[in-house]
Design goal:
The chain has about 350 residues and is an alpha/beta fold. The protein folds into two domains: about 120 residues, Aspartate Aminotransferase, domain 1 (Alpha-Beta Complex), CATH 3.90.1150.10; about 220 residues, Type I PLP-dependent aspartate aminotransferase-like (Major domain) (Aspartate Aminotransferase, domain 2), CATH 3.40.640. The protein is built from twelve helices and 14 strands. It has a seven-stranded mixed β-sheet, sandwiched between helices. Strands 10-14-13 form a three-stranded antiparallel β-sheet. It has a two-stranded parallel sheet with strand order 1-12. Helix 5 links the parallel strand 3 and strand 4. It is globular and about 60 Å long. The model has no long low-confidence stretch (mean pLDDT about 95).
């Protein structure tokens, strides 16, 4: 068993802090404690509850009809939740199906644990939406977990309610579980489908405060699932992180208690930025895309079919602008364009991107 670094995170670690314009990030612009106007002076810096503070778990549970706090485990970001679920459900002789492309942790964890991994590919010709006939064909007798990420990172595609329910049926028929990473759900342009964990005991919801809420620094995510899975998450966490940051939980609780007001402001900024990106893409001669149906990422590709590594390296080194080449997410020919940042940063970043395109292909 060998844990190797993820190419995506190597790219971030190398270049993210060396640029003036970040149009490759996959979430809303990070917020500060001052912007949130929070008083954290009375937060007790003690060990916390192993699956999250009961008050925070209840606030989260209130979003999931038919689920209670006993069905919620607050984790160190969605990544820890992902690790715990896979480690618990997928044994050495079991198969896991992971939708692809997605955030690399979802497939790197089973690779590192040396599990039987099947990548369920989203295709350009399908608008990056899941082809469930192909998913059915991918299921094996030993399949124990299927994972989907919708709204999708990096393509911005979304699931309909009927597709989600059908995917759950596929998992149930196989005696498997379906885990849906719903991190971007609150940034869908249209009405989202139900939360997966509300539809079946075989469905697991995974999410995070990092992307929609612009709070990656607090490292708070959660798993909502049947109680035995939550207890398994507790057991794994006790051997890794034990509990969450008390500061992170306090900030998450304050934001979620005021979520409608906070979310309205974030969605307004996201939709305004999307209009800027769409107008820019509509005028592109070098790039094409499947228009995303949620914020705040998309995956354009070069019309000439070439890899994007050279473009992204030129951008970061000469034009001090950050994007992510598709090769770092096993999506050659594409790159990840994020539009969750400040509007002026986005506008200037797109100008730099156009300069780099013109220099290479003009």
């Amino acid at each position: 068993m060998v844990f190797e670094r993820m190419p995506l995170e190597i790219w971030f670690d190398t270049y993210q802090f060396e640029v003036d314009y970040d149009i490759g990030e996959s979430g809303m612009k990070f917020q500060t404690v001052r912007e949130l106007d929070l008083d954290l002076n009375e937060v007790e810096l003690r060990y916390g509850y192993h699956i999250g503070h009961p008050d925070l778990r209840q606030i989260i549970a209130n979003q999931y009809q038919g689920r209670g706090a006993e069905n919620v485990a607050v984790t160190t970001g969605a990544s820890e939740g992902n690790f715990c679920v896979i480690a618990h459900l997928v044994n050495p002789k079991d198969n896991i199906i992971v939708e692809h492309p997605t955030y690399p942790s979802l497939y790197q964890v089973p690779r590192s644990l040396e599990r039987d991994l099947t990548l369920f590919k989203l295709k350009w010709e399908d608008g990056f939406t899941p082809n469930l006939d192909e998913l059915r064909k991918a299921v094996k007798p030993n399949t124990k977990l299927i994972t989907l990420t919708h709204p999708n990172n990096p393509t911005g595609s979304v699931l309909s309610e009927s597709t989600l329910k059908e995917a759950i049926e596929i998992a149930e028929d196989a005696g498997a579980y379906l885990m849906v990473d719903e991190t971007y759900r609150d940034l869908m342009f249209d009405k989202p489908p139900p939360l997966a964990a509300t539809l079946s005991d075989r469905a697991i919801s995974l999410t995070s405060m990092s992307k929609t809420w612009g709070l990656p620094g607090i490292r708070i995510g959660w798993v909502v699932a049947d109680t035995p899975i939550i207890e398994a998450v507790r057991a794994i966490r006790e051997q890794v992180t034990i509990c969450n940051s008390s500061l992170g939980e306090s900030i998450a609780k304050a934001v979620l208690e005021n979520q409608e007001k906070v979310l309205a402001k974030l969605r307004e900024a996201m939709l305004a930025n999307y209009d800027i990106v769409k107008e820019w893409m509509d005028g592109q001669e070098w790039l094409e895309w499947i228009e995303p149906r949620s914020g705040v990422v998309c995956a354009p590709r070069l019309r000439n079919g070439k890899a994007t590594d050279k473009l992204c390296e030129l951008l970061v080194k000469k034009y001090r602008t950050f994007t992510v080449p598709g090769s770092r997410m096993e999506l050659d020919g594409h790159f990840r364009l994020g539009f969750g940042g400040e509007q002026e940063e986005l506008i200037q970043g797109l100008k730099q991107l156009e300069k780099a395109l013109r220099e290479l292909y003009g």
